[in-house]
Amino acid sequence: MTTPVTPAFPSKLPNVGTTIFSVMSALANQHHAVNWGQGFPDFGCDPKLLDAVTAAMQAGHNQYPPMPGMPQLREAVAAKIAALHGTHYDPHTEITITAGATQAILTAILATVHTGDEVIVLDPCYDSYAPNIELAGGVIVRVPLTPGSFRPDFAKIAAAITPQTRLMIVNTPHNPSATIWTADEMRQLEALLAPTNVLLISDEVYEHMVFDGAQHESAARFPGLAARAFIVSSFGKTYHVTGWKVGTVAAPAALMSEFRKVHQFNVFTVNTPMQVGLAAYMQDPAPYLELPAFYQRKRDLFAEGLQQTRLKLLPTTGTYFQCVDISEVTDLNEADFCQWMVQELGVAAIPLSAFYGDGFAQKVVRFCFAKQDATLLAALERLRKL
Ligand SMILES: Cc1ncc(COP(=O)(O)O)c(C=O)c1O
Q1: Is residue 1 part of a domain?
Q2: What is the strand order of the sheet 312-313 is part of?
Q3: Which of 63, 316, 331, 370 is 20 to 30 A from 176 via CA?
C-alpha cells in the first residue's frame, strides 16, 4: 500500500508568512526578554468582572445565546454609545457581539466586499486588515498616513477613491502610531465620503485610551460617518481581558443585517457566560471612564524612564503604545534594531515597518506600556544602556 499523500492546493493567502510578531515573541521567550512588543496587559482584570462571569456560569448560562449576542449585553453597549456619543443604536437590529474585534472586522469585510472591490487602508495599519481583504477577493489600496506625524492626508485619500472603492478602514486611537483623530479630521472624512457609496469600518478598540483630556472622536458622533460605518470595539482592550476575545459592532440596520448573515454562518454566536458577566459588569461605567487616567499614569511613568535614554519619544495621545525614534541610538534599521535589542538587552519591541504593506522603514519602534509598574521599571533599567 502506498502512503497517502496530502493533496497540494493553492494557498488563499500566499503572501502571509511568519509575522514579525511571532518572530519577536519567539526571540523574547528564547532570551527571557521583557515582552514590550505584543499589545496585551501583564496584569489581571477587575476581580468583580471575574465574579460576574463565574456567577453567570454557575447560574447555568452555558448554552447557545441568541445569534447576535445576549440582549442585556447589546442593550448595555447601545446605552453606553448613547451616553458617550449621543447616538442611538437599536440593540435588536444594530448591535452584534463578536469573537473579538478581529472577527468583527473580518465579518464586516466578508459581508460587504465583492471580488475586485477596492478597499482603502491607511498605512501603517493593524495586520489583519490586508489578509482579510484578500480573503474576500478585494483589492487592497494602501494610502500612507503622513510619515512623522501620522496624520491622515485627505488629498491622498481623495485621490485613492475610485468607482470601485467599496470600503475604507480607519482606526482611532491608532495602533501602531498611538495618535488619535481630531473632530476636524473626522469631519473632513465625513465630507470626503459624503458624495460616495464608500462604506466604513471604524476600528475603535482603544476607544477608552485617550489622554490629556482629549475626547475619543467615534464615528458614531458624525452622522454622515455613522450612516455608513461598522463601529468596532473590544472588551479585551477595555477590561484587560484580551484572551476572552469578545468584541462589539454597531452599524445601521441595513448594514447589520448583511453583517449578521455572515456572522451566523461564521461563528454563529459568542460564548454565553462572558456575555452575561460583561453585561452585569457594564452597569457601572467607572471602569471604562477611569481607563484614560489609569493608562496616562503608565504612559508618563514609561516616558519619564525613556527620557533617560537617547531614544526620542513620539507623542502618545491614545492607545497603550509608545513609539520611539531610534536614529540617535543606532545605524541599524528598525527591524534589525529590535532583533539586537531583544538579544542584547532582553527587551522586545515591534518595528513600525511591520505595519506597512511595503515595509517602509523610518527608524521608529513601538513599545507597549500595558504592563505592571514593576515590569516597566525593570525593562527601563535594561534600556539605560541606550
Ligand atoms: C487596531 C486593532 N484592531 C483590532 C484588534 C483586535 O482586537 P481583539 O483582540 O478584540 O480581536 C487589535 C488588537 O491588538 C488592534 O490593535
Answers
A1: no
A2: 312-313, 321-325, 364-368, 350-351
A3: 331
- Where a domain ends, among 287, 310, 339? 287
Say whether both 172 and 272 belong to one domain. Answer: yes
Task: Name 168's bridge partners.
Answer: 120, 200
Give domain status of residue 10, yes or no: no
Report how far ligand 1's centroid is from the alpha carbon of 386 (Å): 31
Domain shared by 135 and 205, yes or no: yes
For residue 247, the ligand 1 atom closest to its alpha carbon is 10
Quote the ligand 1 centre to 279 CA distance (angstroms).
Answer: 21
Q: What is the pLDDT of residues 226-236, one digit of tens each?
A: 999 999 999 99
Q: Is the CB of 171 under 6 A from ligand 1?
A: yes
Q: Output DSSP code: residue 355.
A: G
Closest CA to 86 of 257, 222, 194: 222
CATH number of the domain that residue 266 is part of: 3.40.640.10
What separation in Å is there between the alpha carbon of 259 and the centre of ligand 1? 19
pTM > 0.85: yes or no = yes
